[in-house]
Amino acid sequence: MYALKSKSILSMAIAMAVSTSAYANDTTIEEVTVVAKPTSYANNVIEPAMLEQQSTVSSVLSVIDNLPGISINEGDAFGGDDWSTTITMRGFSIDGNQQQLGMTVDGIPNGGSNYGGGAKANRYLDSENLATVEVGQGTSDIKSASLEALGGTFNFVSKAPSLEKSTTFAYTSGSHDATRYYLKHETGTLFDNTQAYVSYSQTDTSRWIGSGSNGGKDNQHAEAKFVTTLTDLTITGRISYDDVSETNYNSVSLAQFEQTPDWDQLTWNWTGVPHFDQMFAEGWGTLRENTLAYLKFEYAISSTSLLTVSPYYHKNSGRGDWIPPYLTTPVDENGNPTTEGGSNAGSYGFTDSEGNPLAPNADCTASLSWPWESGPGLNPACYDAGATPVMSYRHTHYNKDRLGVTAHYAATFGMHDIEAGFWYEQSDRDESRDWHKVIDARIYHHYDSTPYWTQYKNTFEADTLKWYAQDSMAFGDLTLNVGVKKYLVDIEKFDHYQNATTAKVNSDSDILFSGGIVYQLNNSTELFTSYSENFAAIKDGVLERDSSDLSAIEPETAENIDLGVRYQNDALKLTATAYSIEFDNRITFIAPGSDTGGIDYTIGTNGSYLNVGGIESQGLELSASYMLSPEWSFYSSYTNNNSEYKGDAPGFEAGDKVIDSVDDLFVLSTDYYSGDFRFGMSAKYTGERGDVDSYTVLDLNAGYAAQVDAGPFKAIDIAFVVYNVTDESYLAGGTGNGSTYFIGSPRTAAVTFTATF
């Protein structure tokens, strides 16, 4: 395990970079896994047992859920839906409306965590290929490449290739029709200096809500990685490909949950009534394809200096689906029918046999009440028997290309550990929305492949440059670090139907300062404190909305202060951190009024963004890991967080609790190892959020691993995981509006058989 010593972290990093031992097998990686590095800000690294607490069919996001301050919810226990994924930490969130936490993979930026054109770490990394996750709560590493790191960062680290040649096959079977096939080949050492692997997985699950035609997740994923070690140069290359189709989960109100706690209001039987069938689950879809590739060159300039340069490329494409219960009437600015651009002059839900729009019978006022009031226009009872119901299949297309490079220089000069570098990225994001006619809404949602209206088509170009520098100075047992960083971000919107650049914004930061102190009290205890100015650039989504006053919108900023202590001896590791955060210039979307009483499918580019005050957060994070014996260990974490809005805005007033923030989180887990057998249990308590009740979820895992060396087999492993053992009924992550939440996953089990050849 990592020892708390005053020795320069930089020196150790350089020593690892120029040594082939840095690329040892997986066991070596686990041996250096620790609760927290000796840095001046709060940070955590997952423990090896946290990987075993999750099934391989689950998303890599789930492994950090037990760390202090963090809450992860993904719609189901297997992370089967990005739409319903929410992450909160210290009052900051990643959800459908907010992206306030940074995320990288091997230090490479993820391109944003938003639903439209973004991709979280689960799109880049299979759980079997995950080595660890580095979490910086509140104050991130100064070199972290993210435009969203207001409240902290997550760096997902992929495994290094093994020195030994092997082939691994794994099969998983689980609840809700879950199946997973995984194949990985390790080349071992090639040419005396190179190790590599390639892997492929196929994952399928069904939605846990409902039955029959109910949708689910279909995911193909591939990865390849190599490491070549030369005299003074180490070259790492990695590429990942992910192709997924997901059926979404829907959020529900408190009243809906109390009435039907195991139903998210989506249906699985086609009725032929469009007002009902707009909630047909298979019509709510997320399709995404992501390819991320990078090369990393680590050059040891001398025994005390290291230069790292990492060029990368990311391609994202996909689609989001909905099935509105009507057809629209698109017109141009002169009121003439159009198929591209313009606006909707009106919608209709029924036609005659020739396809002409019909109005409801004049004397009919009846309305369908579910899922919301239909009005007579969408009620079949208000039309003659020969009327034909019609529907649309609405596609929102997302495409994003990113090309960038990160460069980092680190050197030790006497008492000084110097770091400096930059991150540059150029990205183009295309977004368009088209409407397709459902061929026969009485039968199913099959649609005409040619759209009858493309509502909008825009391209967003962004140029990002970040530079930073930091000096860590060692004064005996005390280390002082001082750093500066600055972001320069330019975004433009090109409207293809106006054939012009219609919006642009400069989202540069001020020079942002950070500083911290680490004091080595004795061989087992260190004290730390830090201050950091964090920044989130204005996102290109703000430029989507034509009513946003860009001249009045400022980037979001946060000032983070940490004060804490770390303790470690042979059996016990403790960390305690008190923090205070001032979040300013919070950017919020103000939606236009909707006359549907439900989803406004035609919202397009209406609505606006504006700054609405900020958030104040104070809290305490505790974590403890204790080895009762070589076989038996305990882990616990506790978080108390108080996040309140400052400044009034639509939906809340100054002093109100931040929507979806949790005051109390408590985790207790234990793991037991006896020879080839392992067993673990983990319980997590999530406190109240406004009117939402608290809940406790209990998980267990067991496994058997053995070296067999019989015939073609080298080793086998059987792993069994059960989530929510007590089948607790609860509301999990929210949508950021304080009125709807996603239903928590029920009891879910999975078993995985792995064989290594």
List the helices and strands and how they pair.
Blueprint: H1 9-17, H2 26-31, E1 43-45, H3 48-52, E2 70-73, E3 86-89, E4 92-94, E5 102-105, E6 108-109, E7 130-137, E8 152-158, E9 165-174, E10 178-190, E11 194-206, E12 216-229, E13 233-247, H4 254-259, H5 274-277, E14 285-302, E15 305-322, E16 327-331, E17 343-348, E18 350-351, E19 388-389, E20 392-413, E21 416-437, E22 453-475, E23 478-495, E24 500-506, E25 512-520, E26 525-536, H6 540-544, E27 556-568, E28 572-584, E29 587-590, E30 608-611, E31 614-627, E32 632-646, E33 664-674, E34 677-686, E35 695-710, E36 713-723, E37 731-734, E38 741-743, E39 748-756
Parallel strand pairs: 5-8
Antiparallel strand pairs: 1-7, 2-3, 3-4, 5-6, 7-8, 9-10, 9-39, 10-11, 11-12, 12-13, 13-14, 14-15, 15-20, 16-17, 18-19, 20-21, 21-22, 22-23, 23-24, 23-25, 25-26, 26-27, 27-28, 28-31, 29-30, 31-32, 32-33, 33-34, 34-35, 35-36, 36-39, 37-38
Organism: Pseudoalteromonas marina
Subcellular location: Cell outer membrane
Family: Belongs to the TonB-dependent receptor family.
